[in-house]
Design goal:
The chain has 23 helices and 16 strands. By secondary structure, the chain is α+β, with helices and mostly antiparallel strands. The strands form 3 sheets. The chain has a 6-stranded antiparallel sheet, with helices on both faces. A hairpin with a 2-residue loop joins strand 9 and strand 10. The termini are far apart. The N terminus is likely disordered.
Length: 657
């Protein structure tokens, strides 16, 4: 401030008295930056003291205002530069949007800043992100292009504003947007369009909760911010798209690498699978290889769900879900998942032409790569099964011919017969047994398949002979077995048990061991007689030889002897004569009564007659042969005679010892 005694420094022609000293003080004040109020106080004092004339004071005011404007513009440019730098450095679109509205609100000093994007499909501009807004209605405004301040700005024609939007009749209004503006308490609104590559992509707006007119400087600043914001937004979008493209490219590359690795593994698997086909007994090797490749146990089952291999997951594969899945897999030539009691499995059927050969089952639902392994293995399995079936069919034909020749040997073929039998572990000096297996006609082929599978790799032969299955095998196979199983093997009970597990009911008659092929025909006759005796005595489902038949076995040697006729006449003669004359069934009644242990109700049920009728028959029998036939020592004689009668009426022939 210039002192009063310095008033002489002002020139009479105008300016500062005191010359250079007064001008220097004024320049220093302007250089250090003085507010308009402080400058006006100083100039007023100088004017009053006559230290400065009015033109000089006016010039000082104009200069200070220009300096302040330049300083303000420099500050704004610095802030805009910093904003542009910050926005350009952000790569995430969402982060860029939030940064734009946050910086805009800070630079303009508004209550709210928000950014909208245009949806040209619907013809609307919708609020995408806000800063300072407190209501959900405002944050979700959608305006038709050209409507209101937001819609007008979003068309890209020019910046637009309204000092008091709800009261502004020059702007078009939409009820939903007016409700949102009122809920937020907004009055003044101003916005600028966002342009990118010659296209308007949206609008940048600010709003205050008091009515006022935004200055031209605010509008210019908003336009500058909008320009930088649009560029930053597009850069971020391009970067995101490029990053996404690179991510997709990397994923595709990883998938390609995984595919290549899978192909390499399949190629290696193919080589090993081919090696298994070239080996003897390829099926076990194939299953082991598949279990190793899948890192999980694998089951091989027949089309009926019966296990064809020992290892693998446990499950009722003969159940409806498993059989249905296996049939679907055979039809589609593809793996099919299924469940049994909540446990998940995958089945892949091996098919040759239209024939379902078998099914592979794993206790998992596999990934695509492992499914490819399973499907490839099923193809090789089909080849393996066809080769094995071809081999087995050839072996079976040999066994079929061999059994026919062994049971009716011709001396001129003895040497060839010995050589052929030796291929199956049979020799003329070994103890051999003949077994005759009786099953129903509809189960005979299945039983043959099961027993052939059971006998793989062990000495012996099995084939259809006449109307039954015939087995010839060394007796030593079942001799001296641990845990008391020798007896079961001797009579053929193990065959009964094996078939029962496959739901096949069978009856087995076994001969006594014989040495020499020439005695096999008689052994077969004996085994067949034992089978017929079991069936005649209602002992279906059992296995026996003559010793296991008990008294019936003893009788087999005398079926056609005079003694047999004398025994029947002595013990049952009156009953036989009565039945023949009257057409009754007294002998059958006596037989059934003894077989049911003398139980009246069970006997009547077996004969399908009333108990009163049974009592009448029993009384008639008592009257004809005496009541002692029911009990005591004579009861045993009558039972033996009844068994003899039963076997003779069933057509059982005499067997020589």
């Amino acid at each position: 401030m210039v002192a009063a005694d310095d008033s002489s420094a002002v020139h009479s022609g105008g300016g500062l008295s005191g010359g250079t000293k007064g001008a220097g003080q004024l320049m220093a004040m302007l250089d250090h930056g003085v507010s308009a109020a402080d400058l006006e106080t100083t100039l007023s004092a100088w004017l009053e003291a006559g230290a400065i004339d009015p033109p000089a004071a006016a010039a000082a005011r104009r200069l200070n205002a220009r300096l302040w404007e330049a300083s303000r513009r420099e500050g704004l440019l610095r802030v805009l530069y910093d904003t542009a730098t910050d926005l350009t450095g952000i790569r995430d679109v969402e982060a860029v949007l939030k940064a734009i509205v946050r910086r805009t609100r800070s630079l303009i000093g508004s209550d709210i800043a928000y950014l909208s994007l245009n949806d040209y499909d619907t013809g609307e501009s919708y609020v995408r992100v806000t800063d300072g807004a407190t209501t959900a209605l405002f944050r979700n405004i959608r305006m038709p292009l050209g409507e209101g301040v937001l819609g007008a700005v979003a068309t890209g024609e020019a910046p637009a504003q309204s000092p008091d939007y709800l009261m502004d009749e020059t702007k078009s209004h939409l009820e939903s947007s007016d409700t949102a503006v009122a809920a937020e308490g907004v009055r003044a609104i101003m916005g600028v369009p966002l342009r990118a590559e010659g296209k308007v992509i949206g609008a940048l707006l600010v709003a205050d909760r008091h009515a006022h007119q935004f200055s031209s400087d605010d509008v210019a600043l908003m336009e500058s911010i909008g320009t930088h914001a649009a560029v930053a937004l597009e850069n971020a979008r391009y970067f995101s798209e490029m990053a996404n493209a690179l991510t997709r490219l990397d994923q595709a590359q990883q998938q390609n690498l995984a595919h290549v690795r899978a192909l390499e593994e399949l190629s290696s698997l193919d080589r090993r699978l081919m090696e298994t086909l070239a080996s003897t007994g390829s099926l076990p090797y194939l299953l082991n290889l598949l279990a190793e490749s899948l890192d999980t146990p694998v089951s091989l089952v027949s089309p009926m769900g019966e296990p064809l291999a020992e290892s693998g997951p446990e499950g009722d594969f003969g159940s409806f879900p498993a059989l249905s899945a296996a049939e679907e897999s055979a039809a589609k030539r593809a793996a099919v998942p299924f469940e049994i009691k909540g446990k998940k499995y995958t089945v892949m059927s091996a098919v040759a032409g239209d024939q379902h050969l078998a099914s592979l089952i794993v206790a998992e639902q596999l990934s695509p790569a492992r499914l490819a392994v399973l499907e490839r293995s099923a193809l090789v399995l089909s080849v393996s099964l066809l080769l094995e079936r071809t081999f087995q069919d050839a072996q079976y034909r040999l066994q079929l011919e061999l059994i026919d020749d062994l049971l009716s040997p011709r001396a001129e073929n003895a040497a060839a017969l010995t050589r052929r039998a030796g291929q199956f572990g049979l020799a003329n000096h070994l103890q051999l047994v003949v077994r005759v297996v009786g099953v129903s006609d509809d189960q005979r082929q299945r039983a043959l398949s099961v027993l052939r599978h059971r006998s793989e790799g062990v000495p012996g032969i099995i084939a259809l002979h006449e109307s039954h299955l015939c087995i010839i095998e060394p007796f030593e196979r079942h001799d001296n077995r641990p845990n008391g199983t020798g007896g079961a093997g001797r009579t053929g009970q193990t065959i009964i048990d094996e078939l029962k597990r496959r739901r096949i009911t069978a009856t087995v008659g076994t001969s006594e061991p014989v040495i020499g092929f020439a005695r096999l025909a008689a052994a077969h006759t004996e085994a067949d007689a034992v089978l017929r005796a079991l069936q005649a005595l209602s002992r279906d489902g059992e296995a026996a030889d003559r010793a296991a038949l008990g008294t019936a076995g003893m009788l087999l040697g005398a079926m056609d002897s005079p003694f047999a006729g004398q025994l029947l006449t002595a013990q049952l003669g009156p009953l036989l004569g009565y039945d023949e004359r009257r057409g009754t069934q007294l002998v059958l009644t006596a037989w059934t009564f003894h077989e049911n242990g003398g139980a009246t109700q069970e006997t009547a049920d077996s004969l399908h007659i009333h108990t009163n009728t049974l009592r009448q028959r029993l009384d008639r029998i008592d009257a004809l042969i005496g009541a002692s036939w029911r009990r005591g020592s004579r009861s045993l004689d009558v039972q033996v005679a009844l068994r003899l009668w039963r076997m003779k009426t069933a057509g059982v022939s005499s067997v020589g010892f």
